[in-house]
Design brief:
The complex is a heterodimer of chains A (299) and B (123).
Chain A (H helix, E strand, L loop, with lengths): L1 H20 L20 E2 L2 E2 L8 E12 L15 E9 L4 E8 L4 E11 L9 E11 L16 E14 L2 E12 L1 E3 L5 E12 L4 E11 L8 E4 L2 E4 L8 E9 L3 E8 L6 H7 L10 E11 L1
Antiparallel strand pairs in A: 1-2, 3-4, 3-17, 4-5, 5-6, 6-7, 7-8, 8-9, 9-11, 11-12, 12-15, 13-14, 15-16, 16-17
Chain B lengths: L1 H19 L4 E3 L12 H12 L18 H7 L12 H4 L13 H12 L6
Helix pairs in contact in B: 2-5
Classes of the chains: A mainly beta (299), B mainly alpha (123).
Chain lengths: 299, 123
């Protein structure tokens, strides 16, 4: 509890400081900005440092199919269970974006904010650094939260610091360090988790790129499993420790659209759901097709 | 300047909401009493209605869990094991590691198990 309070306080202080330090006029010797490392704010299952010019509205549609494990019976997951998220993101300034989204699995309603506070410059600062945070409300049935239900049980939080660099026209990479907190979880996992993620984009033509991502969750320790007894049999309940998520696919982008078509493992769409609850092992065949579509409007 | 002050205030308010709505809780379930009779119509069918019929209607992947068809679909489709109730497919798919674990919870799985242990009646 103290640790997460400290993390959040530090982030708050960081925000305030950055706003206070914004210069009124540009220094003459400020190097020119490097071009953006990514085409879009989302990247398969992850967020990127990318924000859009102010007064831009982005519509995001994310879709994941079922796993391919059932073969032709459900056309490799395409006729199977799905997860869908729709979101609207709005850029208040060139660096600050807020968003609202709704997800099918667990009926998550999320509010998010993204802020980019350092930018890569040609011959100058080497990285683009941004922060992404969201707060999600699990609006599914009350029975999913067990006994002693309280409204705050439904909340979960995600904070990520992202460091991105455009190495050359055809290669960009981003590392992300994230902290996840769920207010109420099953007894087999902890409420907090950390994750490290890496994403890479290889541009093969002006509008097409090959994209790859990897996210590794780190949960420090486990709680003892909770045993429910029926008669004389003890049964363990709850998800097991989360597995890493890997994604591999193609990005097609225009000035107003970005499309991602890819395979990945995690059925979740919110970053905290992916970090905490991914039970699909990418390297054991639990792969699913997915696509993202984003559309931008400039006002 | 007003915009920056306004934004700062918004950040402070959101930060306070995030900080104060944080808690550390664990999900615990009420153990269903196996001696209390479980009714299929009032206890089990609502579980299917809550989170299953969207992907399991008639004509979808088995079992069909709509109110008129679910009991027959479960009995004839091999989803229930009378001899070893906790090996019934309908139950194991709802528990940890099961294919439907993400769409159910331990409370509902427990109810289904007790129903099977009581004879899987269409009551």
């Amino acid at each position: 509890m103290k640790k997460s309070l400290l993390v959040l306080l530090l982030l708050l202080v960081g925000f305030g400081n950055v706003f206070a330090q914004e210069p009124e006029e540009e220094k003459a010797e400020k190097k020119p900005l490097e071009r953006a490392p990514f085409e879009s704010g989302i990247f398969m299952d992850d967020q990127t440092v990318q924000t859009y010019p102010s007064n831009t509205l982005e519509f995001v549609l994310q879709h994941r199919f079922g796993t391919i494990q059932n073969g032709f019976t459900d056309l490799f997951g395409i006729w199977g269970a799905t997860n869908i998220r729709m979101a609207l993101n709005y850029s208040i300034t060139d660096n600050l974006m807020i968003g609202f989204g709704t997800t099918k699995n667990k009926r998550y309603q999320d509010l998010s904010v993204k802020y980019t506070f350092f930018h890569q410059r040609k011959g100058g600062f080497p990285l683009t650094i941004g922060y992404y945070g969201n707060m999600a409300l699990n609006a599914s049935d009350k029975s999913n939260f067990g006994m002693d239900y309280a409204f705050v049980d439904r909340f979960s939080y995600f904070h990520e610091l992202m460091f991105a660099r455009r190495f050359c026209r055809s290669f960009s990479m981003q590392m992300g360090f994230a902290f996840v907190h769920f207010n109420k979880v099953d007894t087999t996992i902890k409420n907090d988790a950390f994750s490290i993620s890496a994403i890479a984009r290889f541009k093969v033509s002006p509008q097409t790129s090959i994209v790859a991502s990897c996210e590794v969750p780190l949960m420090l320790g486990y709680d003892t499993p909770f045993i429910l007894k029926y008669g004389q049999k003890g049964i363990y309940y709850g998800p097991k420790s989360p597995l890493p998520n890997v994604g591999l696919g193609v990005e097609i982008s225009t000035s107003t659209h970005a499309f991602h078509i890819f395979v990945s493992a995690a059925p979740g769409l919110l970053p905290q759901d992916i970090v905490m609850y991914n039970q699909n092992d990418f390297f054991n065949g639990a792969i699913m097709f997915g696509f993202n579509m984003t559309r931008l409007w400039n006002f | 300047m007003y915009k920056r002050k306004f934004l700062n205030m918004i950040i402070l308010i959101v930060g306070m909401i995030v900080l104060f709505s944080c808690e550390y809780e664990k999900i615990t379930y009420d153990v269903p009493d196996p001696t209390i009779p479980v009714s299929y119509a009032t206890d089990i069918q609502p579980i299917w209605a809550k989170g299953c019929v969207g992907c399991h209607p008639v004509g979808g992947p088995p079992p069909a869990l709509t109110p008129d068809d679910s009991y027959n679909a479960l009995i004839t489709g091999g989803f229930i094991n009378d001899l070893v109730p906790d090996q019934s497919i309908i139950y194991t798919s709802m528990t940890t590691g099961g294919s439907m674990a993400a769409y159910s919870n331990a409370q509902d799985a427990g109810k289904v198990l007790v129903w099977i242990q009581q004879g899987a009646k269409n009551n």
